[in-house]
Structure formats: C-alpha cells, structure tokens
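hiii so um. not sure if this is the right channel but i have a protein structure encoded as tokens and i wanna go backwards to a sequence. like what aa goes where. can anyone help
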C-alpha cells in the first residue's frame, strides 16, 4: 500500500473500499442504464465526489466493489485520464499529445463482486486487497464533510475492529415558524433529532473478515455490524455536520442545487 500525507500532515497507510454494486431501484429514472454511483451531481458522478473527499485528505487508493453495470464504472476510469484536460491530436499519425498532466494521482482497483451479492459479500470478495491492515469503507452514493483524518484517529484510539460514522438523518420536509396563528417563515432544517443512524464512512481492521461468514449473502449492516456490536467491537464516531445520501430523485435534485449554488458542504477541496 502507498503512504500518503493527509490534510493534517499525518502519514496514513490505508485503502478505501467503495460499495458501488447496488441496483438503485428508487432512482429508476436515472439508473436504468447506469449504476447509482454514476448518477451525476454538477456534471460528475457522485462516486467522483466521494473519492475527491477522501483524496483531499490523503486517501488515494480505492477498491471499488462493482455489481450492476460495473462496465460503466470501468469505462469511466479507463477514459478518465485520456479525456481530461486539453490535447492535440495528429489525425494522420494517430498521435495524441496532452497539454497537462493527469488530473488526479489516484490508484483505483475495480473488482467485479457479482450482480446480486450483498454488501458484506462484496467486502469479503475484496479480502485479498485488504488483508495488510486498517482500511476505510463507505457507500458510493452518499456525501458528507466528515473529518476523515479525525475519524481514523478516533478508530485507532479505541482499538476495536470497526468504527462507523453516526449521523442524524436530514429532515425530509421543511419546518414552519409561527407568530400566533400566522406563518412567518419556512425553514429547511439540515438535521433532525430523531436519533443516530449509520451514515457509512467506516473504518475496519482485517479481523472483520472473520465476521463475513455467510458468503455472498452476508449483509454487512445486519449480519456483520450487529455481531460486532454484540461483541463490543464496534465504535461510533458522531458526526453532527453535513451528511446526505442520494436514494431518491428529490435528494439528487437537492444535492444538485447545493452544487450549483456553490454551497456544497462536502466540497472540502479547492
């Protein structure tokens, strides 16, 4: 694994797993011909937004678990370098001369993990790439401004097999502010106090593979994380700032509007 320097200057040695194999049925209008992580926000796949967040903090080696229309993700990264930036093409000689260096210095492992494999099964299939040490994991369809360096430090300080990032779910509806019987203001509250949920952005030690013992049908969230919790091996890093998944068109349009307005909280890079 490669050494990288994170945002706070700390040297880290870890890979990032991105679960990108689901069907995305609740975004059917967008996902009939492409996987949900390739649905675009601001002209870029949401998967790219997630990766830029990690890369900005020094985590630049990715293991992407592919499933439904994995070929679309493969093609995107195969073309990523050649189609970025300006170039000159000599049609007679078939030569292409790039004007700039490639845009990102990432290493991306693209692993087919089956069409109907569950989340834990997908992770199990990546075991050969992850045996060496601590690794991070998240979903390819949710963004946040979680401090990834602090998350890793938190995980290591607790000495457990796993750490999840606990978030409060965004409010589905705006609120009302009253003055007596009159409505004086509509509010869009970013978070509500309905309790904490697993927001992804997890960190694991290789010992987790002992808990992935149901083959392709292993569900990470139910079978594995619940057993880790029972065994006292799962810590929770509480993140009170921005977090948003993209399960519906409404959520997709919300993220798009934040990006277009230049107020996307997950854009931690310049």
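sure thing!! here u go:
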């Amino acid at each position: 694994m490669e050494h990288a320097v994170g945002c706070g200057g700390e040297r880290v040695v870890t890979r990032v797993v991105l679960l990108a194999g689901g069907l995305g049925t609740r975004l059917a209008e967008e996902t009939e011909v492409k996987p949900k992580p390739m649905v675009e926000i601001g002209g870029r796949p949401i998967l790219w937004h997630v990766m830029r967040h990690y890369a900005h903090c020094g985590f630049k080696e990715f293991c992407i678990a592919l499933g439904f229309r994995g070929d679309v993700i493969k093609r995107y990264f195969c073309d990523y370098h050649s189609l970025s930036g300006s170039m000159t093409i000599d049609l007679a000689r078939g030569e292409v001369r790039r004007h700039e260096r490639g845009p990102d210095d990432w290493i991306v492992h693209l692993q087919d993990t089956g069409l109907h494999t569950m989340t834990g099964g997908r992770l199990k299939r990546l075991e050969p790439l992850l045996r060496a040490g601590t690794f991070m994991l998240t979903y390819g369809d949710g963004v946040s401004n979680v401090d990834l360096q602090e998350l890793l430090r938190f995980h290591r300080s607790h000495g457990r097999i796993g750490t999840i990032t606990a978030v409060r779910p965004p409010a589905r509806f705006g609120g009302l502010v009253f003055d007596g019987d009159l409505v004086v203001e509509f509010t869009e509250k970013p978070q509500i106090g309905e309790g904490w949920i697993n927001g992804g952005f997890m960190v694991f030690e290789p010992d987790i593979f002992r808990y992935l013992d149901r083959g392709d049908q292993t569900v990470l969230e139910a079978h594995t994380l619940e057993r880790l919790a029972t065994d006292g091996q799962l810590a929770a890093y509480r993140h009170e700032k921005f977090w948003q998944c993209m399960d519906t068109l409404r959520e997709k349009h919300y993220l798009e509007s934040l990006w277009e307005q230049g107020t996307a909280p997950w854009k931690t890079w310049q």
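oh and The chain has one domain: 4-164+195-260.
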